[in-house]
Amino acid sequence: MSTTTTPHASTRGTTITRAASLGAVAGVIASLMMAAYAMIAAATYQGSGFFTPLYHIASVFISPADMMASMKSATAGGSIFEFFAGPALVGALVHMMVGAMYGVGFAVLARLTRVRGMALVAAAVIWGALVFVISSFVGLPLAAALFNSGDQITNMAELVGYGTFLVEHLIFGLFLGVILVMFAKRAR
After folding, report:
1. Which of 8, 10, 29, 14 is nearest to 183 (CA)?
2. Range 85-106 average pLDDT
3. Which partner from 57, 63, 77, 146 sits 20 to 30 angstroms from 71, CA to CA?
4. Mean pLDDT across the stretch 159-165?
5. DSSP reduced 3-state for 5
6. What is the DSSP annotation of 82-120?
7. Is 20 exposed, middle or buried, given 0-12, 13-18 or 19+ CB atoms closer than 10 A?
């Protein structure tokens, strides 16, 4: 006589909780890789200052004055490394929290659909493109309205440049997928 075992709800819940935890960690790391690219792009071909992306993100909650000062310094022959610790920290924290949130969403979906290996990486890159669309046309305008943040948040994708903003999100997805695959290999 053969017996078939079915996973208990508690086991499935534990698996989903573990996927969410790993997704949060992977999302934070992927958001840091995304931010590194954004900062390099800002300092090089955009010419708006290395730390400007952090100040731009921070302007959801604080004045955009530091973002503007960073941009003016970079374009007026001043330093491209204009640094304001408080706004940089706020921007980094907000960015990592959003990255963690999107990482959790993807990791849970990936676990439920049982996507693995290179298919997981490809799906994560597609997820990054989806996050680009959601952020550009829903998330950022909604955040601007909720926190009375202004056009610099509503139009962030346009101000950064849609191409650059898309590449940033594809980098997020790529690193998210690779990190989740690494976590899965390590768990085996």
Report:
1. 29
2. 98
3. 146
4. 96
5. coil
6. ---HHHHHHHHHHHHHHHHHHHHHHHHHHHHHT--HHHH
7. middle
Can you tell me the distance from the alpha carbon of 29 to that of 146, in angstroms, rounded to the nearest whole number?
A: 27
Contacts 24+ apart (CB under 8 A), 138-144: 143/60, 144/60
CB count within 10 Å of CB 155 equals: 14
Helix, strand, coil percentages in the chain from 3-state DSSP, rounded to 5: 80, 0, 20
Tens-digit pLDDT profile for residues 55-78: 999 999 999 999 999 998 888 888
What value does the mean pLDDT take over residues 109-122? 96
pTM of the model: 0.90
pLDDT of residue 170: 98
Mean predicted confidence (pLDDT) in 150-174: 97
* Predicted pLDDT of residue 1: 47
Alpha-carbon distance values, 33 to 1, 28, 95 (Å): 53, 9, 11
Structure tokens at 180: 């989740």
- Provide CB contacts within 8 A for 186, sequence distance 6+: none
Q: With beta carbons less than 8 A apart as the criterion, state whether 118 and 109 touch.
A: no
Alpha carbon 35 to its chain's center: 8
Cβ(124)–Cβ(180) under 8 Å? yes
Asked if 87 contacts 55 with a C-beta cutoff of 8 angstroms, the reply is yes
